[in-house]
Design brief:
Elements: E1 2-7, H1 18-28, E2 30-35, H2 39-49, E3 55-59, E4 70-72, E5 77-79, H3 87-93, E6 99-108, H4 118-139, E7 142-148, H5 151-162, E8 178-180, H6 187-195, E9 199-202, H7 215-227, E10 233-235, H8 257-268, H9 272-287
Parallel strand pairs: 1-2, 2-3, 3-6, 6-7, 7-8, 8-9, 9-10
Antiparallel strand pairs: 4-5
Helix pairs in contact: 8-9
Amino acid sequence: MLVDTHCHIQFQGYKNDREAVIERCRAKGTMLNLVGTQKDTSRLAVELAEKYDWMFASIGTHPNHLFPTHIDEEESHFVSREEDFDEAYYEKLVQSKKVVAIGECGLDLFHLPPNVPLETVLEKQKRVFMAHFQFAQKHDKALVIHCRDAHDQLIELLKELINRISPPMRGGGGGVRGVVHCYTSNWTHAEEYIKMGLCLGFTGVITFPPKKSDPQAQHDLLEVVKNVPMDRFVLETDSPYLAPIPYRGTRAEPWMVEAVAKKISEVKMVSIEEVEKASTENAKNLFKFLI
């Protein structure tokens, strides 16, 4: 059994064949954590997870939804709808036993809204992330953390927040229980996150060839995959995005997480069975799945 700890099959990209995708995941024995990015997708994640004993949900507000922002990625192009973190709304959702984490939340300095000063963007992102952090502590949930082009700022903020937590509430390593989703940075940043008690989430990005414009980035990422302890990583697809090789160019589906596991086994030079066992156990420990 494998666990896709970060997917979005409640998104519109699956509206025409969602049941078929779910059946393929069931046939593969893949457990799913459906991750919300704002109020509607968080609610839909909970509603869908409640229908299946092998699905769970995470709820929160993605930093790209804090301002109207044009998102131009290989798989999608849209302008995000502006929202803030509505704690009263999420307070109702978190009552579901299927909610295992808070997020996707965090910092993003890659997708920036037009005509808004960087300082203003970062200030709001930090404020909203702090609200998610406190909400997760209040409800004893893991954090699903998004970070793009802002690792130094995130690490500084996390250290500040962790210092405020009373020791009994701290997670592994004396820090916080959570995962840095779709990790793509270097070992220097990875070590900082691991010291804080966080796990790293690996997606299909680890299967991609190096970019001609920046081949070092993929080298650095695979160094992280090689060095990360066996008890500090989880598997993700980020479906419908980031389909791994050999499915690149198609819409990702959660069962494709097996390709991520295969790449990890190759890089770490351990058996696929070891990766499957470790990643599944890590996911259960991180999210406290009630199964």
